[in-house]
Design a protein that fits this description.
GO terms for molecular function: protein N-terminal-serine acetyltransferase activity; protein-N-terminal-alanine acetyltransferase activity. α1 packs across α2. 28% of the residues lie in helices and 31% in strands. The chain has 213 residues and is of the alpha+beta class. It is globular, with a radius of gyration of 17 Å. A 9-stranded mixed β-sheet has the order 7-8-6-5-4-3-2-1-9, with helices on both faces.
């Protein structure tokens, strides 16, 4: 699509492909949301969208991508990829930036279908967007956060070299819960073999960056 080149942007790793979703991809991602993305009773998200019935979870999964595409601007963007593994859509990995041309800082968030967890996919898909951010877009920092009772997410961050960056308190359901902020500086990032970026150059202005000469 000439006027929205993001649909051709992909990041590939030894096992995964990250891409903006087609409508069929969104259907598959919605199925993952309906199946479940965490154990019952837990809540790893500040907005408890997984408390909704399966059909509502599926519908909201589709809608968030439409909202992000419609709201995208070079000064404020959220790029949510679907994650394909062995030909199946297994989850989503987001990378977001505000005033990125000035801050050179991105944030990340993700979820993975429950039955695809504990396979190393979560670490690899986060590493993929870090490769896009640092090697592709020239980011200087990447940030993330997780509730302190979400050790899986924090373990992924620490495995990838993030350092603790303070505690915040947020509402979660009908109570308060602590979130651990984490930050990864470019100099602490380690590039991985077999990670490749495809179709980035036409997208650079949409990320607030000048086109390559």
């Amino acid at each position: 699509m000439r006027h929205w080149p993001l649909f051709a942007l992909r990041v590939t790793t030894p096992r995964l492909e990250l891409r903006l979703p087609t409508l069929d991809d969104l259907d598959a991602l919605a199925d993952r949301a309906a199946e479940g993305v965490h154990e019952p009773g837990g809540m790893p998200f500040g907005v408890p969208w997984t408390d909704a019935p399966p059909d509502e979870r599926a519908r909201s999964t589709v809608q968030i991508h439409f909202r992000q595409w419609g709201a995208w601007s070079p000064d404020d963007w959220s790029c949510s990829f679907v994650v394909a593994w062995e030909g199946r859509i297994v989850g989503t990995q987001e990378m977001a930036g505000r005033d990125f041309a000035y801050t050179r800082e991105i944030s990340t968030g993700s979820w993975l279908g429950l039955r695809f967890q504990d396979k190393g996919i979560g670490t690899e898909m986060r590493a993929a967007v870090l490769h896009l951010a640092f090697a592709g877009l020239g980011a200087r920092h990447a940030t993330s956060s997780a509730f302190v009772d979400n050790p899986r997410s924090l373990a992924v961050s620490r495995k990838l070299g993030y350092r603790d960056d303070g505690i915040e308190v947020h509402r979660r359901r009908d109570g308060a819960a602590q979130q651990q902020r984490v930050r990864l500086a470019r100099e602490d990032w380690t590039a991985r073999a077999g990670f490749e970026i495809h179709g980035l150059d036409p997208c650079l202005p949409l990320f607030g960056l000048p086109p390559r000469a």
